[in-house]
């Protein structure tokens, strides 16, 4: 593998030069509070940045925080010679080129559970809203129209909720839905423990055919891209409702608009779209606008104060632990290492290309400098090796420089 090498930040992180942090997309203040308390210099941007703007803004930045709207392709890293880590202050990490960041030695951290409950609660509310056509009735009354009807309105008790993707959100939603008396079935590519009385179905087709409500909770991947198109929508029961609060790439919007217009589906709730605005000031157009019993929300499934506050703290904490001690636990694109710091030792962190002989070369450098290794932990994936090494003697600057000179080196830094 030939890894394009960006300039190596092998100089020790100095307490005198504060680390620069760039937080995009209105990341919660809780993150800034923690990062500032470390002495880091935090800059904020309200919306997302396009990749070329991001590339410019990453010059000299050590940590960047994004949410779901900021894409981080390899081209955005071209000036990111100081970038140590990326914080995705959300669940999804499909917006980051995880392979490119991995081979450039930049771990990406997310918050895998902090907004799970918020999404599950919103989807459960939408099930009731759709089956009672509450938004349409509400709009009519706002317009001075009194349309008291029961036709087409139903209880959710006894109805079947079909969950596609029975992970953190899907399984939590299933538990909440059973509390309302719903029957829960799910389809997942992995074998999952059924919670409560829920039942796994072997195929997507069976789930679509059996459900009164179908809700999607899968990540954006090649296998989920357009997984609900015209053929899948046609398999759903007449009058059933579709809910998508996962990713906009999962549902074919024109096909959905068509089955809503033809009244094959009774309603839909959509929170995510193939193209979403970068800021709250941008306009938005979708073919679903104006259709009856269609709830459209601006990607707010995880947008509660509770979730955002908790995500801010969780991801900021991961970034701080990585800066201070090199911990990569929870990074989505990196070998996992977490070693407690021992006072009096001198820690070096090294990311290198995963080829035979690197550890031998590094240990020869340490030995030539007459240093003693107190602790050494190496974890690898198919592209890179991540080494955390504590030395008894303070020769870490010389060791660091020598390791950075190896042609296998990707990133090397000293933390203590
Ligand atoms: N609307 C929002 O604001 C919001 C908030 C949080 C998360 N999300 C989205 O929801 C997604 C799910 O979140 P989660 O925390 O439950 O993730 P998760 O990883 O815990 O669960 C995802 C599940 O989908 C399954 N899956 C993957 N590919 C599949 C396929 N082709 N068919 C069927 N199942 C498949 C996985 O096996 C897993 O069980 C996230 O990836 C994110 O994109 C949206
Ligand atoms: O992946 C997620 O957690 C959700 O899509 C929420 O993303 P957001 O932080 O951009 O609202």
TrEMBL record:
Chemical reaction(s) catalysed: (R)-2-hydroxyglutarate + NAD(+) = 2-oxoglutarate + NADH + H(+); (2R)-3-phosphoglycerate + NAD(+) = 3-phosphooxypyruvate + NADH + H(+)
Domain ACT: 347-416
NCBIfam families to which the protein is assigned, alphabetical: PRK11790.1 (NF008759)
Domain of life: Bacteria
Family: Belongs to the D-isomer specific 2-hydroxyacid dehydrogenase family.
UniProt keyword terms in alphabetical order: NAD, Oxidoreductase
Pfam families listed in its UniProt record: 2-Hacid_dh, 2-Hacid_dh_C, ACT_AHAS_ss
Organism placement in taxonomy: Bacteria, Pseudomonadati, Myxococcota, Myxococcia, Myxococcales
Name of the protein: D-3-phosphoglycerate dehydrogenase
Metabolic or biological pathway, per its Swiss-Prot or TrEMBL entry: Amino-acid biosynthesis; L-serine biosynthesis; L-serine from 3-phospho-D-glycerate: step 1/3
EC number, as in UniProt: 1.1.1.399, 1.1.1.95
Function: Catalyzes the reversible oxidation of 3-phospho-D-glycerate to 3-phosphonooxypyruvate, the first step of the phosphorylated L-serine biosynthesis pathway. Also catalyzes the reversible oxidation of 2-hydroxyglutarate to 2-oxoglutarate.
Example of a GO MF term: phosphoglycerate dehydrogenase activity
Species of the source: Hyalangium rubrum
Keyword Oxidoreductase part of the UniProt annotation: yes
């Amino acid at each position: 593998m030939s890894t394009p090498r960006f300039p190596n930040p092998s100089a020790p992180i100095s307490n005198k030069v504060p680390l620069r942090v760039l937080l995009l997309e209105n990341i919660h203040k809780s993150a800034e509070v923690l990062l500032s308390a470390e002495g880091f210099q935090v800059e904020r941007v309200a919306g997302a940045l396009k990749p070329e703007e991001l590339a410019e803004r990453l010059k000299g930045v050590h940590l960047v925080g994004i949410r779901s709207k900021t894409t981080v392709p390899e081209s955005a890293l071209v000036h990111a010679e100081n970038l140590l880590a990326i914080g995705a202050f959300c669940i999804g990490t499909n917006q980051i080129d995880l392979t490119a960041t991995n081979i450039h030695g930049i771990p990406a951290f997310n918050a895998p559970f902090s907004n799970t409950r918020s999404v599950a609660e919103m989807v459960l509310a939408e099930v009731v809203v759709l089956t009672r056509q509450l938004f349409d009735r509400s709009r009519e009354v706002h317009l001075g129209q009194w349309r008291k009807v029961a036709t087409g309105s139903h209880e959710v008790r006894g109805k079947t909720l079909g969950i596609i993707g029975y992970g953190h959100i899907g399984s939590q939603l299933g538990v909440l839905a059973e509390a309302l008396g719903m029957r829960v079935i799910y389809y997942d590519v992995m074998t999952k423990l059924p919670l409560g009385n829920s039942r796994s179905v072997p195929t997507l087709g069976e789930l679509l055919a059996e459900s009164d409500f179908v809700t999607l909770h899968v990540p954006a991947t090649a296998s989920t891209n357009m997984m609900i198109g015209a053929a899948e929508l046609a398999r759903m029961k007449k009058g059933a409702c579709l809910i998508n609060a996962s990713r906009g790439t999962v549902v074919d919007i024109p096909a959905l608009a068509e089955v809503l217009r033809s009244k094959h589906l009774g309603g839909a709730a959509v929170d995510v779209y193939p193209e979403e605005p970068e800021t709250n000031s941008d306009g938005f157009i979708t073919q679903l606008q104006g259709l009856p019993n269609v709830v459209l929300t601006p990607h707010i499934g995880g947008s509660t104060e509770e979730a955002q506050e908790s995500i801010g703290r969780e991801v900021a904490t991961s970034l701080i632990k990585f800066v201070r001690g090199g911990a990569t636990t929870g990074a989505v694109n990196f070998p996992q290492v977490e070693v407690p710091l021992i006072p009096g030792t001198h820690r070096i962190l090294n990311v290198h290309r995963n080829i035979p002989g690197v550890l031998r070369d590094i240990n020869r450098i340490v030995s030539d400098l007459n240093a003693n290794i107190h602790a050494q932990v190496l974890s690898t994936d198919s592209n890179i090796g991540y080494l955390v090494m504590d030395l008894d003697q303070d020769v870490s600057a010389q060791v660091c420089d020598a390791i950075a000179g190896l042609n296998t080196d990707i990133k090397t830094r000293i933390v203590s």
